[in-house]
Design a protein that fits this description.
By secondary structure, the protein is α/β, with parallel strands linked by helices. The chain has 2 domains: 149 residues, Rossmann fold, CATH 3.40.50.1970; 184 residues, Dehydroquinate synthase-like - alpha domain (Dehydroquinate synthase-like, alpha domain), CATH 1.20.1090.10. The chain is built from 19 helices and 9 strands. Helix 10 runs antiparallel to helix 11, helix 14 crosses helix 15 and helix 15 packs antiparallel against helix 16. The chain is globular. The structure holds zinc ion.
């Protein structure tokens, strides 16, 4: 067994000057296009192949299992998917014992051997180590048993090494458990990049319910953020004729509404609530797969969260920041921002800087820099973003800062 070393992200980004420089670098970054798949298939750069830009690709999971105490079903599920010999299981040091080992038992009983690889962080170094492990072991499939960083690393490493991956989440903290996008720290782009959708998702509600409630509440913030992400998507469709898919948009919105309708059940922190959140997260992942883009699930509120990751010395959880971003972006849209705030409050999720444990100054900085994170992603923030005064007024009007 080889241990994957801890992320250098914290040491790198705890330095204020480095974070500021990174924001400047982002502003001059080039456009991000989902071209990897097409380039691989055609063996050419997409810029050389005009027709490739017309391809709309949907990549969906083949098997989704959600239930209580279902880890023994992993082996049979893998067999059904055609895997018969070797797998590699990426996991965390805590999740190994509670979830990855039962998964390995189930695989062994079904004649599939596996090796454990521990993921320490979600940096480019962790990614390299994971890819090295796949090259060395040569498994048929990679399993991600863990939270966000384990899933992100496994997703991108397996994609880069051309093998499928199975998502076995142990928290319900964000929609990456089901989407084709991976967020890796240390890449030049501080937002998710396209990798591959999981071939299967096997979510054990009982295990996820054992994780701290904060993860579930963060997952809810990520889902509620679709409220403004879809508005941004519709806006750019009208203003710039960018592709828009009504089905994917409605699927994402429906998930957000479902969470806001069921705050009481979710707050009880039991398996019933976890199931609602999980199904909504998976629907969001599927919405992105159908859209062929993260547009239905990621708009101005996500740009704010990414900018806050860089501006703040100690960022909060992704979904928590997106939730607070959604309150402010809903205000800009003249939408019912109080309903968003009240839903987050009812879930026990942060609704202001204090609860995010960050400084008002970082909120203002993130608001003024958010539009620079990815220039091709046009949102309500416009091309020039918010002025400092406008950012401060917005944050005060919504109670995010006092
Ligand atoms: Zn998200």
């Amino acid at each position: 067994m080889k241990a994957i070393l801890c992320s250098k992200w914290n040491t790198r980004y705890n330095n204020y000057d480095v974070r500021q420089q990174m924001l400047k670098n982002i502003s001059s970054g080039e456009h991000n296009r989902d071209t990897t798949f097409i380039e691989r298939a055609l063996g050419k750069r997409v810029s050389d192949v005009q027709v490739a830009q017309k391809v709309h690709r949907m990549e969906l999971p083949r098997e989704v299992l959600i239930g209580s105490n279902i880890l023994p079903l992993v082996g049979p599920a893998l067999k059904k998917l055609g895997f018969a010999s070797t797998a590699v299981t990426f996991t965390g040091s805590i999740t190994r014992k509670v979830a990855a080992e039962p998964v390995a038992d189930s695989m062994r009983e079904n004649g599939i051997g596996t090796t454990f690889e521990l993921v320490g962080g979600s940096s480019t170094e962790d990614l390299t180590l994971a890819q090295d492990a796949i090259r060395e072991i040569r498994p048929e499939v990679a399993l991600a048993v863990g939270g966000g960083r384990v899933i992100d690393i496994t997703k991108l490493a397996s994609f880069n090494e051309n093998i499928p991956f199975i998502s076995i989440p142990t928290t319900a903290s964000h929609d990456g458990i089901a989407s084709p996008w991976a967020s890796i720290k240390g890449l030049e782009k501080p937002f998710s990049i396209r990798a591959q959708a999981p071939l299967a998702i096997i979510a054990d509600i009982a295990k996820i319910n054992e994780a701290p409630y904060r993860f579930t509440e963060s997952g809810c913030g990520d889902i509620i953020s679709k409220y403004t992400a879809v508005r941004d998507w519709r806006l750019v469709h009208k203003l710039r004729d960018e592709y828009y898919g009504d089905y994917a948009a409605n699927l994402a919105l429906m998930s957000a509404k479902l969470i806001m309708k069921n705050t009481d059940i979710i707050r009880r922190n039991n398996e019933e609530g976890v199931q609602i959140v999980l199904e909504a997260l998976i629907s969001c992942g599927v919405a992105m797969s159908i859209a062929g883009s993260s547009r239905p699930c990621s708009g101005s509120e996500h740009l704010f969260s990414h900018a806050l990751d860089i501006a703040a010395s100690r960022p909060a959880l992704h979904g928590e920041q997106c939730g607070v971003g959604t309150i402010m972006m809903a205000y800009l849209y003249g939408a019912d921002w109080k309903m968003i705030r009240d839903s987050l409050k009812a879930l026990g999720a942060p609704t202001n800087a204090k609860e995010l444990q960050t400084e008002p100054e970082f909120i203002i900085q993130a608001l003024t820099q958010a539009h620079l994170i990815r220039r091709e992603r046009f949102t309500i923030l416009g091309e020039n973003g918010l002025s400092r005064d406008a950012a401060e007024k917005l944050a005060r009007a919504t109670g995010v800062i006092e």
